[in-house]
Amino acid sequence: MSSSRPSPVVTAPWRYAGAGTAVVAAGLLLPAGPWRSGTEVAVYLLALLAVRYALREHRPVLLLTWRVTAVALAALGASAVAQVLEQAGVAADVTGVWEARLDLAGYLGVTVAALTALAGGRRRRDWDAWADTGSLLLVAALAVTVLTSEGRQLHRGLAELLVGLPLVTAVVLVACVRVAVVGSGRSPSGIALLLSGTLGLAGTAIRIAQDAEVAPLVEALSEFAVVATAFAARHPSVAVLGRGADPGSAVTVSRVFGLGTALLATPALVLLWTLRQGGTGYWLAAGTAVLTVLALWRLGRLTAERERVRTALAASEARLRVLLENAADVIAIVDGDGRISYVSPAVRELLGHSPGDLLGRRALDLLDAGQRGRLRRAVRRSPGGGPVDADVRLRDTTGAGRWVEVKVSDRVAAIGVDGWVVNLREITDRKVLEGELRHRAATDPLTGLHNRAEFLRRLARVTAAVPAAGAPAVLFVDLDDFKRVNDSLGHAAGDEVLVAVAGRLRHAVRAGDAVARLGGDEFAVLLAAGPAERVDEVAARLTADLGAPLQAAGRTLTVTASIGGARAVPGDTPETLLHRADTAMYGVKSGGKGAYLAAAVDAVPAGA
Predict the structure, then answer these.
(1) What digits encode the pLDDT tens for the residues 200-243?
(2) What are the pLDDT digits (tens) for 372-417?
(3) pLDDT confidence of 262, banded at 50, 70, 90?
(4) What is the pLDDT of residue 88?
(5) Is residue 438 part of a domain?
């Protein structure tokens, strides 16, 4: 069974606080004298033990702050020991002087600890926090100047009070800004430190408002402040106390009001002093307070507006981030040097690269080598460097090609963007489909040869500029008596014959030549530019190959073909060149079939 008892780590701070409170309460029951002052020594010793435990076990972020705090507590504890000795009559003159010196040393230690808290737990200096503390100390120094300018002779206790006043106020400021607002949030240790500073400030205010002799409970406020410090040091949350906050959230309305409250502490204390002791300092205190309130009101409105704008901006950035992270398209920013400065997460799905892998790489390096120059020229030709729309092929991490539709914006010169915004949408499937459609549109479905339309397009290219020597040529092939095959064996057997003939035609020509089925049993061969003798050689080879026996419908058949040839001449069109070869083929038909006849090479195209 699991135990429901609280962990010792959680209960220890409360035991320290309980013990300290008990010691302070016991001191309140004792008459004024060394025994009551002895309880103050016990409280400081308890706090030192708590800080020592924090430094050894918790290893707080503000390590230097707590070390200085330990020194300050030791100095204030030693001052309490000196007070005990003075009250006991042991070297009263010497111990009284050392008591005052140790008190001032303790105040100085607390101030140094507060200042180190500003620099602790940060990756960079927080100049705003330093400015806050500087403003506070300046106002406090003005208060001391006003008080000391009255020309009064101040007794030792009052001098300590006036020197300690700005220091205690500084601690409250740091507690408000660093603990209650920034970084750590409202952790138990942070709240305890805020309570400690508040108790110290309250004790100072009451001592100013009252006569020299104050009630024991007021004297005990500083001891309760030390107990709160012991609780803060002993609690586990001290480990992360002071950890830096998000700089964007450091300036808030609560921080402004916390700063304003701390700044108002000094003029309020000065006002209490002057109203109690007389003088004109209260005019300065009252005026300072009014100015602070007005400035605080104005700063609060400005900060509230800033918070609203920041919240709206954060929401807009969050929406944009969600859109970019879930968009199917890849969005990238390419700087002026052609390097990728941003790319959306969708690139992982497209190319297999993580966004971080591509930052700083040249964008053109992702393209196929043969397409880099084309895209570069397209960007340069575009007015103003964009926009550009193009279909390009990229290489993924496996080396496979991925087609994308790329849209390059006009060059952008804005905050955070100096270059081009590029949108990539994968179109690999579309390109494959387009290729299939183009293939189907240009291919005879039965034989796999070019169809009539594609053959005429190729003829158009070669007849556009016929060379003076070595002109291209066309062979028109028509199977002899093919109708009898269909009639006797059926159309399926006829299709087998056509496929066999197509294979023999394809293997009889070179890679640069083209073979097409024009329709029915008519075929055509386009021979690339070359000597006239080659036309005769290919025609003779085709005549022999086509006349060889073939298998169809389980039978051996012999099929012959009549072939007419024509070489292109200047002024030819695809139709005239094909017509002359067709005419030559019919000349073979009329002369006995199964042979080859070439049209006259000097024939003038019709309509030329």
Answers:
(1) 777 766 766 665 566 777 778 888 888 988 898 888 888 887 76
(2) 777 777 777 766 555 777 888 888 888 888 888 888 877 676 666 7
(3) low
(4) 81
(5) no
How far is residue 74's CA from residue 94's CA, in Å, rounded to a whole number? Answer: 19
Same domain flag for 570 and 486 = yes
Residue 605 lies in a domain: no
Query: What is the CB-side half-sphere exposure of residue 558 using CA atoms within 13 A?
Result: 5
pLDDT in tens, 281-293: 556 556 666 666 6
The answer to whether residue 570 sits within a structural domain is: yes
Q: What's the whole-number mean pLDDT along residues 586-605?
A: 73
User: Are the C-beta atoms of 223 and 40 separated by less than 8 Å?
Assistant: yes
Residues 412 and 484 in one domain: no
Please classify residue 553 by burial: count the beta carbons closer than 10 Å to its beta carbon, then call 0-12 exposed, 13-18 middle and 19+ buried: middle
Residues 234 and 350 in one domain: no
CA distances from residue 547 to 71, 178, 320, 573 in whole angstroms, order as listed: 114, 100, 72, 31
Query: Which tokens hold the place of 508?
Result: 């009889």
Statement to judge: residues 293 and 340 lie in one domain: no
**Domain residues for 590?**
443-598
* Nearest in space to 342 (alpha carbons), one of 414, 397, 396: 414
Q: What is the total count of domains within the chain?
A: 3
For 47-106, what is the HEC assignment?
A: HHHHHHHHHHHHCCCCHHHHHHHHHHHHHHHHHHHHHHHHHCCCCHHHHHHHHHHHHHHH
Is 242 in contact with 174 (CB distance < 8 Å)? no
Q: What is the pTM of this model?
A: 0.47
Amino acid present at 250: A
Q: Which two tokens stand for residue 135?
A: 């403003």
The phi and psi torsions of 275 (rounded to 5 degrees) equal -65, -30
Structure tokens at 559: 């099929």
Q: How many CB atoms lie within 10 A of CB 504?
A: 18
Note the pLDDT of residue 450.
93
321 belongs to a structural domain: no
pLDDT tens-digit series, residues 490-527: 999 999 999 999 999 999 888 889 999 999 999 999 99
Select from 38, 485, 62, 101 the least CA-distant residue to 239: 62
Q: Clarify whether residues 234 and 283 are in a common domain.
A: yes
CATH of the domain at 565: 3.30.70.270
How far is Cα 419 from Cα 414, in angstroms, rounded to an integer? Answer: 9
Verify that 411 and 354 share a domain, yes or no. yes
Are residues 236 and 367 both part of a single domain? no
d(CA 421, CA 342): 9
Tell whether 149 and 195 lie within a shared domain: yes
> In whole angstroms, what is the distance from residue 598 CA to residue 564 CA?
6
pLDDT at 139 exceeding the cut of 60: no
